[in-house]
Amino acid sequence: QVRVVESGGGLVQPGGSLRLSCPASGILFSIHNMGWYRQAPVTQREVVASITVGGSTTYADSVKGRFTISRDNTEKTVYLQMNNLKPEDTAVYYCKIASDSWGQGIQVTVSS
User: Fold this and answer.
1) Dihedral in degrees, nearest 10, Cα atoms 12, 93, 90, 84
2) What is the DSSP secondary structure assignment for residue 41, as one 8-state letter?
3) Quick check: 31 and 6 in contact, CB under 8 A?
4) I need a surface site. Which of 15, 23, 45, 100 has the fewest CB within 10 A?
5) pLDDT, tens digit, for every residue of 8-66?
6) CA distances (Å), 88 to each of 13, 19, 68, 92, in order?
7) Residue 81 and residue 17 in contact, taking contact as beta carbons nearer than 8 Å
């Protein structure tokens, strides 16, 4: 079975940084596209950032210049570096591998 588990979330003040990690097992990691999504209360889940097999990246307008997605095929892990965090970034963040493999989600709260 595919196992995807996010880590690195928590509480941070506005302007702070967090790095989310998403190691994956049970898949051929290097052949899949992947991404990070988030969902705030009473909102739809939205894509935050994605990265292709070849390393091309795409970001939501709201996080451009602040977030960076990367992947390590040796460690079979996708990362999301989040800098200059804002209260509106508060949400549950989900890691997605390929088209249908999701982590359980991890809370990120930005508050003073």
Assistant:
1) 50
2) T
3) no
4) 100
5) 999 999 999 999 999 999 999 999 999 999 999 999 999 999 999 999 999 999 999 99
6) 12, 17, 17, 12
7) yes
